[in-house]
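Dear support,

Our group has been running a series of protein-ligand predictions, and this particular one with adenosine-5'-diphosphate is the one our PI (initials K.S.) wants archived with full inputs and outputs. We had some confusion internally about which version of the output was final, so please treat the block below as the authoritative record. The input we submitted was:
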Amino acid sequence: MALKRVLIANRGEIAVRVIRACQALGIETVAAVSAADRDSMAARIADRAVCIGPARSSDSYLRIDALLATALGTGCDAVHPGYGFLSENAHFAAACVENGLIFVGPSAENIRQMGNKLVAREIAHEVGVPIAPGSPHISEFSTARAIAEEIGMPVLFKAAAGGGGRGIRIVHRHEELRGAFEAASAEAKAAFGDDALFLERYIGNARHVEVQVLADAQGNVIHLGERDCSLQRRYQKILEEAPAFDLAQSLREGMRETAVALARHIGYRSAGTVEFIVDVDRGEFFFLEMNTRVQVEHPVTEMITGVDIVAEQLRIAAGQPLSFTQSDVRTEGHSIECRINAEAPARNFAPSPGRITEWAPPQGAGIRVDSHAQRDYVVPPFYDSLIAKLIVHGTDRADAIARMAEALAQFEVGGIDTTIPFLRQVLAQPDFAAGRINTNWLAGIAEDFIAEQAEEPHA
Ligand code: ADP
Ligand code: ADP
Ligand code: MG
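Confirmed final output from the archive:
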C-alpha cells in the first residue's frame, strides 16, 4: 500500500520539508494553514491549502476538530504532524486513527508513554537504560528538600510533561529550592497544562547526545547513529552536528544499543529520537527522554547517511517494511546544522518578526537550506522564530566547520534581525573547533556577544 493524500498539520520549514518528501514519493498534499499563513510557501507548493482558523495556534494549528474535518473533507488518508504543535499529542494521534486516518508517527500509546518524562524514565529503567539519579513525582514541596539532599546539589526541577526546554529550573542552593519549584510548576502549568515536577541530578560538564531510530510496523528497529546537540541556550538547541565527535566507543555503542532496545521494548513504529545526557567527567550516559516525532535537526543525520528520514516515516506509515538493514547504514563525513531564527541576538535574542526585504541564502556543494522564507515574506509574530536551517556536509568536522563559516558569511538577510551574526561568532571560536564544548558553553558566548554589541551600538 502507498499513501495517496497527506494532510500537513504544521507550518513553516517543516511543512515545506514534508510536502517535498510527499512530492518525491508521488503523494498528494493538503496544507492546513492558519489565516496568517494563507500565502505561505507551504500553501503555495501543496496541491491544496485549506484555512483552518485564525492566526493564534490555539485557534488553528492546535485545533484537532478542524484538522480532522479538513483531512476528511479533502479525502486525505493520512496526517503528518511535523514537530511541535500536535506532533506529540496522544489524543490527536488517537483521533486520527478513530476517524480512519493514518497518523504518520507512532501509536497514541507510545506517545502517551514517552510524553511523560516520569513514565519514560520508568520504562527506560526497566529496559536497562541508565537514568540520572532523580525523584518520582514531587507533589508537595516539603518532600523536595529531602530528595535534593539525597541527590546532591545542583539539581534540576523538570516538568513531567515538558518539552522545548520549558519547565526546567536549575537549583544550586537549598534556599533556592522553593522559588525554583514554584517557578517551574507555574511554567509547566502554563505551557503544558500539567504542573507535575520531578528532580534530577544536574550534570555540569555535560554533552547532549541523541540517537535517531527508525522502526517499521513489522518490528524491524534500526538506528542511524548519533547527533551532538550540546550547543544550547536556555535548554534549546541552536547548532547540531552528526556524528557526535570524540565519543568513547563504549558510550557510543551503549547509547545506540539502549536506544534500539527501548524502541523495541515499547513496540515503537516510525522515526524517533532517544536523547541522552553524557557526563563527560565520569564517562557515563543517562537517558533524558524520547521524542516521538521527526526532530528539527534530522537533516544532519540525513546528510551523513543518505537516508531520507521523512520519506521513511511516510513509507512506514503506509505499512511498508524498512528497505535496508542496520548493516546497510553507512555514514560519510560530518554535518552541521545552524538554526537561523528571526531574533535580535544583540537585544537578548528578542523576536524580530516583519518583512524580509532581502533574502540570499548560500548555495554550493555540500550546502542545504531548509526554509519557508523568501524575499518579501513577512515573518508572523505568532509562532516559533525559526526561519531557516542551514545545513552543511564536509569530509570531516574541520571541513564542515569551514564550510558552515563560509555559508553563514554568504547568507544575506535584510529587513529583520537574525541569529546569523551570533552563529558566525560561535563558528569562529577556537574552543568550538577543538570540540572543547559542553551544554553550558554557548551561554557564555551569547553573554560575550551581547556585551560586545552593547559596546559598539553602530556595529
Ligand atoms: P527538537 O527536539 O526537534 O530539537 P525542539 O525541542 O527544538 O525540537 O522543539 C521543536 C519545536 O517543538 C519547537 O517549536 C518547540 O517549542 C516545540 N515543542 C517541543 N516540545 C514541545 C511540547 N512538549 N509542547 C509544545 N511544544 C513543544
Ligand atoms: P526537553 O523535553 O525540554 O527537551 P530534556 O530533558 O530533553 O527536556 O532536557 C533539555 C536540555 O536540558 C538537555 O538537552 C540538557 O542540555 C539539559 N538537561 C536536561 N537534563 C539535564 C541534567 N540532568 N543535567 C544537565 N543538563 C540537563
Ligand atoms: Mg529534549
